[in-house]
Amino acid sequence: MPMRPILAVLVLSLVFARSRAEGPVPAIIQGPPPGWEIVKITDDPEQDQHAAINNLGQIVFSKRAIPNPNGTEEEIYLYDNGKLRQLTDNDVTDWQADINDDGVIVWVQRDPGVNEHEVVRYENGVVEHLTDDFDDQVGPSIGNDGTLIWPTWFSSIQVELYRYENGNAVPITDNGLTNVCVTINASGDYAWVRYDFSVNPWLSTIMCSIGGNVHELTDGTTQAQGCAMNDAGVVAWDDAFRIWTWEGGVASVLQDSTGGRGPRTNNVGDVIYGLSLGNFGSGMLVKDGQTYQLIDTPELAFHGYDISDSGEVAFGVGDFPETDIALLWQIRDPGDFTGDGIIDRFDFESMQNCMSNVACNVQMPPVCLDIFDFDLDGDIDFRDFVVFQRLVVPTSN
Fold this sequence. Notes:
- Helix content is 8%, strand content 42%.
- With 397 residues, the protein is mainly β.
- The chain has 2 domains: 36-329, Neuraminidase (6 Propeller), CATH 2.120.10.60; 345-391, no CATH class.
- β19 and β20 form a beta hairpin.
- The longest helix has 15 residues, at 345-359.
- The termini are far apart.
């Protein structure tokens, strides 16, 4: 959180009963699932972070130059199926972005001159400032139905949630505590963490609102945090360095999740979370009952991640502060950018996207070369296009 102290995490004993899956626990598999691979979206000496992905394969993230002349400048970028676009170009901090399936993007803009944090929305090529006050807005989240919620700081211990409705910010909490880390599903339901920093050590409660009914998923006697929510109303969080899920009033611990932090979950039951492994962090993917350790080297330290319903994971990777954006996706054959097993006009559109990066003076995503650089000469040109044409399958659509 900007301008706030980093929260120290202490392990507390869980004092309320939860169910746990029984039976043998399968071994953790090193590397991505069979048929999947990690590819890079960016590869440069800058700090790329805060990746969010939607179900159309679009990834939004922020980029900070290293070294940074004034220590604040950070810009928003959008990766869209091979094309990389810079959405902001100013001397302030644009970060903490989120994106829904309509391609609507929200983020926070911080002006160091006045030390204010305001919410910005990008829709159909138009950038709109939704707030302009002396309060600090942070970490906005947008749902597929357009619901937009963000936390607003009033003091070091009071942070309330606001929903944006009809051009106005409407408060949805008023408890004097620290309400942050909000996530929204397609129905406009949402989950968040309610911290209590008036006590020492601090405590927290995992909260959610489903159909307008508010539920406390934990009892407020632990240090639970990092919650996420999918469209089915399944909520995930970490507590005592384990990953928990809640569904229909029942909470359970995720097998093989000891040490896990900050889960994200999609609508088919996949869960991605972070795990510290000494001098670096790895992404741990739970898929079809099996746990995969995605990263096994400090040079690819894992951070700032999100997961789509197809199981693709967008994340920050690298040795901080020089970090890049990577993507876990299903392995593609050369020319098949969409990964559907057919090389057609949709792949041609992605090839055009990839080539347009250079024309727009934007670095070409390395994944473009992985798919379309047939002659392996480090670029995509006419010679590659000739090879691509031979692979295209004619379609009637």
